[in-house]
From TrEMBL:
Domain LUD: 80-304
Electron transport found in the keyword field: yes
Keywords noted in UniProt: 4Fe-4S, Electron transport, Iron, Iron-sulfur, Metal-binding, Repeat, Transport
Entry keyword annotation includes Glycosyltransferase: no
Protein name: LutB/LldF family L-lactate oxidation iron-sulfur protein
Residue intervals of the Lactate utilization protein B C-terminal domain: 408-491
InterPro entries assigned to the protein according to its UniProt record, in alphabetical order: 4Fe4S_Fe-S-bd, 4Fe4S_Fe_S_CS, FTHF_cligase-like_sf, Helical_ferredxn, LUD_dom, LutB/LldF, LutB_C, NagB/RpiA_transferase-like
Organism: Pedococcus aerophilus
Listed Pfam families: Fer4_8, LUD_dom, LutB_C
């Protein structure tokens, strides 16, 4: 029986502006997102207020990450040595293809056709499920939200809550219609009560846990000096995957390394408060290689690059690699709350996805990636809540510059570039500026329209290309008299208040 893998990939989805325009028309999606993100924001704020020096904790964690990234090569070699000494096999994966090949080779070596998975964004990033399915190996998601996404032939839309775009009635229908095709069916008379839905998922997954011989995980952190991998989660599914199967393969981004066990203290305080609004994670699982007679007896660790060294080479934007995948930036972002995660066309949505994707892939490669740094109002809320103090707004502006630079000389100039050059020409001469002001003033004298509730007249519709502006916002009618004309009329001593 083959697993439900969901849509092949995010590839081929339209760029953010097109996808966002469609998402804005989905009222149910907006209601689901507003309710979920609002609830998480309130919980986060309450538990953060309990700490006396939250800002100091953020800065300490940021320094730890920055110092680690500055010497990442050394820490990775230490991690490899520590894991090997404890019986694990370490693999280095330059890209997604390398990482997927390792996992598939391990499965084939043991004649395994089914694997269970701990929720892992790294494995979603490399499209592991789809690659394994092509080779006849079924990958079963065990995180509740990931299970909903997989059964619903869907894609994740949030880092913490991948099925945040679904309400409980939709989830009930997915369980009722799809569970039986891939394992234990949902109970008869299934309701949309959250406890009942969780119970149905528990029965379905228990069958997977007890019958599957291989598991695949990611890791939230990898401790270099002890060779310890760490997974934090809320449901216990991760603990089942990490202890019951005979074989365990962990795919770990190279940026997840921390030097020492004591360095975990800051992160294990910051992460649960920022993500789920809890003081600590219900389940924090750690493992170091192989323990005879206890847990998996064959452990493989795949250290994944897949663009991370490319991001590391950017002296300013490398701070994005501090990210601990808490999703706090998504939950405060006014853009994400209105359009959801699918519009970003990646496993990493929201503000952090708008910077991580271009950094990992490089700009100037495809329109969808190049659009992401512009998927923001630059309100700054994401940077304020980031538990490791990533300057997300600053990186967004930095990447916008890189996108522009990447397309310099690409055939005909874009409309934006033409408009900026025209503005530079007009503003570069006092005579031209004065003429423009007089023309605008004359045009203002012809305008009589206004919008109800406004204190000054506004232009609600312009011909093309101005229509691109007015179809989304109003344009104030320019004043009949410019400041310079007023200055000349009244004299340098003012003459009018």
């Amino acid at each position: 029986m083959s697993a439900v893998t969901g849509p092949t990939t995010f590839l081929g989805m339209p760029p953010f502006p097109t996808a966002a325009r469609a998402a804005l028309g989905d009222a149910q999606l907006r209601r689901n997102l507003a309710h979920a993100t609002g609830t998480i924001r309130a919980k986060r704020a309450a538990v953060i207020d309990e700490l006396e020096d939250w800002e100091g904790l953020r800065q300490r964690a940021a320094r730890t990450k920055d110092e680690t990234l500055a010497h990442l090569d050394e820490h990775l070699l230490t991690l490899e040595a520590s894991l090997t000494a404890r019986g694990a096999t370490v693999h280095w994966a330059r890209d997604a293809a390398d990482a997927c090949r390792v996992v598939a080779d391990v499965a084939r070596a043991h004649g395994i056709r089914d694997v269970v998975k701990v929720k892992s964004m790294a494995t979603q990033e490399i499209q592991l499920n789809e690659t394994l399915a092509e080779q006849g190996i079924s990958a079963w998601e065990t995180d509740l939200a990931e299970l909903i996404v997989q059964l619903g032939d869907d894609l994740p839309s949030h880092i913490l809550v991948p099925a945040i775009h679904r309400n409980r009635t939709e989830i009930r229908d997915i369980f009722r219609d799809r569970m039986g095709a891939v394992g234990r069916a949902a109970p008869d008379g299934l309701t949309d009560d959250p406890a009942v839905l969780a119970g149905a998922a528990r029965l379905h997954l228990r069958e997977k846990f007890l019958s599957t011989r291989m598991a695949v995980s990611g890791a939230n952190f990898a401790v270099a000096d002890t060779g310890t991998l760490v997974v934090v989660e809320s449901e216990g599914n991760g603990r089942m995957c990490l202890t019951l199967p005979e074989v365990l393969v962990s795919v770990v981004g190279i940026e997840k390394v921390v030097p020492t066990w004591s360095d975990l203290e800051s992160f294990l305080t910051l992460l649960p408060r920022s993500s789920t609004g809890e003081r600590m994670n219900p389940y924090t699982s750690t493992w170091s290689g192989v323990a005879p007679g206890d847990g998996p007896q064959e452990v493989h660790v795949v250290l994944l690059d897949n663009g991370r060294t490319k991001a590391l080479a950017d002296d300013f934007a490398r701070q994005a690699l501090r990210c601990i995948r808490c999703s706090a930036c998504l939950n405060v972002c006014p853009v994400y709350e209105r359009v959801g995660g699918h519009t970003y066309g990646s496993v990493y949505p929201g503000p952090i996805g708008a910077i991580l994707n271009p950094l990992l892939k490089g700009v100037g490669q495809d329109p969808a990636t190049d659009a992401l740094p512009y998927a923001s109002t630059l309100c700054g809320a994401c940077g304020d809540v980031c538990p490791v103090a990533i300057d997300i707004p600053g990186i967004l502006v930095h990447l916008r510059g890189k996108v522009v630079d990447a397309h310099r000389g690409d055939g005909l100039p874009k409309a934006e570039a033409v408009a900026m050059k025209a503005a530079a020409w007009g503003l570069g001469s006092a005579a031209r500026l004065g003429l423009g002001e007089r023309l605008l003033g004359a045009a203002a004298g012809l305008w009589r329209g206004s919008r109800a509730g406004t204190t000054r007249p506004v232009i609600t519709r312009l011909p093309w290309p101005g229509s691109h502006w007015t179809r989304a916002r109003d344009l104030p009618v320019p004043p009949r008299e410019s400041f310079r004309a007023w200055w000349r009329r009244t004299g340098r001593d003012g003459g009018a208040s």
